[in-house]
Amino acid sequence: MKVLCLHGSSSNKDKIIPYLLPIAKELKTQGLSLHTVDAPFCIANENTPERKLSWLPQASFDLEPAYNRVAKVWDSSYAGILAFSMGSFVAATVSSRLNPLPRFIIVIGGLSPVFVNPEDLPLDLFCSFKNPSLNVVGNGDKTNNAEHNKQVALKMNSTLLEFDGGHVIPNDAETVLKIAEWVKSLQE
């Protein structure tokens, strides 16, 4: 089985892979492999040759292109979605439309994008995903509002996992093990 991984904004599918390695190693013991996909929008930046991609058009909530990109690769070989930052926002909002439904989603540091007023977030979309979800929040996250992410997790009926860190994919052994144990608990 596979887990689809969605990167954050200003990133790409290749750039996220090194940050996922500790989690990938733990999930591999459960027969799960991580697979990444690129976001649909290119962010123009003449200062670097690196591909910087975004899930949403500039300052917009148009989720259709992001949904289409995820739906294009999604099939029954995927068990769930693991997403970081803006990818988490996308995962939480488009997952309920995928067929078959993901058995789980893991969102890391990203249900409250910085350019969005927390009161304007589409909580009805977040709450429409009824399968298990794990919301991983770095208590020192200054990019996304950690406290607001915790509130959204409660409204989603999501399991909350806090760690000592900022706006990063956790790579400390304790947090990685807790993520893997949560996934394993779904298979029992």
What tags apply to this protein structure?
single chain; 188 residues; alpha/beta; Rossmann fold; 6-stranded parallel sheet; two-stranded antiparallel ribbon; 6 helices; 8 strands; 34% helix; 20% strand; globular
> Could you give a short account of the major beta sheet?
6 strands, parallel
Mass-distribution shape: globular
Q: Examine the coordinates and then state which fold CATH places here, giving the name of the CATH topology.
A: Rossmann fold
Tell me the structural class. Answer: alpha/beta
- The CATH architecture classification is 3-Layer(aba) Sandwich
Order of helices and strands: EHEEEHEHEHEHEH
What portion of residues belong to β-strands? Answer: 15-25%
Determine the N-to-C terminus distance: 16 Å
Tally of strands: 8
Average residue-wise pLDDT: 87
Number of helices: 6
- The CATH homologous superfamily is termed Alpha/Beta hydrolase fold, catalytic domain
* Overall radius of gyration: 15 Å
Contiguous low-pLDDT stretches (5 residues minimum) are none
CATH class: Alpha Beta
Total domain units: 1
Major sheet: order of its strands?
Answer: 2-1-5-6-7-8
Residue share in helix: 25-40%
Keywords: Hydrolase
Protein name: Serine hydrolase domain-containing protein
GO cellular component, one term: nucleus
Domain Serine hydrolase: 1-177
